[in-house]
Amino acid sequence: MQKNLYPQFGILLVDDEEAFLRSMSIALERKAGFSHLYHCHDSRNAMSMIAEHPIGIVLLDMTMPHISGDKLLQKIVTEYPDINVIVISGLNQLEIALDCIRLGAFDYYVKTTEERRLIEGIKRAVRMQEMHVENQALRRHVLTNTLEQPNVFASIITQDKGMHAVFQYLESIASSQQPVLITGESGVGKEQIAQAIHDLSNNTGPLVSVNVAGLDDNVFSDTLFGHRRGAFTGADSARPGMIEQATGGTLFLDEIGDLSPTSQVKLLRLLQEGEYYPLGSDRPKRLRARVVAATHQNLTDKQASGAFRKDLYYRLKIHHVEIPPLRRRVNDLPLLLDFFLTQAAEEMGKNKPTIPKELPVLLANYQWPGNIRELKALVYDAVSRHQSKVLSMETFRHVLTKENPSLLQANLENSNARVFFPAEQPLPSMQEINDLLVEEAMKRAQGNQSLASRLIGVSQPALSKRLNKKSAKPPKSNPYNCGYSYNHSYYSLKTLI
Prior knowledge:
Blueprint: E1 10-14, H1 18-32, E2 37-40, H2 46-52, E3 55-60, H3 69-79, E4 84-89, H4 94-103, E5 107-110, H5 115-144, H6 161-172, E6 180-183, H7 190-201, E7 207-211, H8 217-225, E8 226-227, E9 239-240, H9 242-245, E10 250-254, H10 261-273, E11 275-276, E12 285-286, E13 290-295, H11 299-304, H12 310-316, E14 319-322, H13 333-348, H14 358-364, H15 371-385, H16 394-397, H17 406-413, H18 430-444, H19 449-456, H20 460-472, H21 481-484
Parallel strand pairs: 1-2, 1-3, 3-4, 4-5, 6-13, 6-14, 7-10, 10-13
Antiparallel strand pairs: 8-9, 11-12
């Protein structure tokens, strides 16, 4: 089995003391989880190794035979400016340290420095280099506007530009092992995004999913960390936790916003230290999986109320993906509708029904509080009731009727706008407001009077009568256009429905 190397770029250790190379390599692997390491005990070979291998960071000794550290530093900085060089020297002199920084070194440490401090400095350099690699990848994606691995996203049905931008961002962070936070409303497909992140990483380990909602602290610890035999009553055998099962792959923590405060502390320590203790064990294990978390909750609000730790939030949010709701992806509705119709017909052994012309228009005017999951449920229910060649509209019609308040409620909840009338302008008449409302309803319904009448809560004959009266009148300029026109930023139709 191929070993997963972390980080994606290599860390080259250059020192003439082979004992130091061995001890430093062991410390980097055990204390930081770095496995992509290269050794060079002859400074004359350093430049050729950099040319042959994907080196991102160099740990460089200053006092070496053949080529001294300061000369090698200048060569690396000149020929490979994207590489971060950390000088680790036995000389504890401020002047030498300052000279190294002036020459372009990322940092300077003395070999007698506390090991923990040294490891943290190298971790910081790795994070900086990862950010540099990701920025380059993101810039490349933006400039070319293409996807390098479109097959990874084949299962996500979309033609939305916002989703395409999400895919480009995911490809740019594919090489990173830092946590990813996925946010978005329920039903938008956060699980599919987590799967895409895992597939893009090309790690050999599995994707292990854990829904942490409702787990108390003890169950959370046992589920993630596992336990040793005899750790508690009933623990007759050792059990590996989900972290260990996800080794070399991805650990997906769903509904992270519901995690209890005590469990949040445990997760924070796992992310900070990169290690954990199985229950009943006094020997730590390394975290060797990428952590991806998801939530439909607003973690910013939860921080303000004290229900979610700020330090954990920022640890999880090193990479952040916001999935747009279905109401902002109206162009995806025809694709999703056709996909679910085909899927449902195959599963139920029926012929795929024909879609009524007015159905896409009706669906485009719904707010979809349940997003893609709600659409799928509606389509499956409609196909189960389907009898003729054309799909029945009955299953869908309720979303725009007065008997179902979801549309009205969603409109009000999702709009913070208020009708604003400039003080310097006279107020419009009710007739003028009604005309604007009818005009917008017909626009949204794409000329379908039946759908437009449902949108504004009047009967179809009443709407037809208003339209006939309006068309019979000569066109009149609107003196209030600057203040409340239906297409002006001051005016929101949602506030009138």
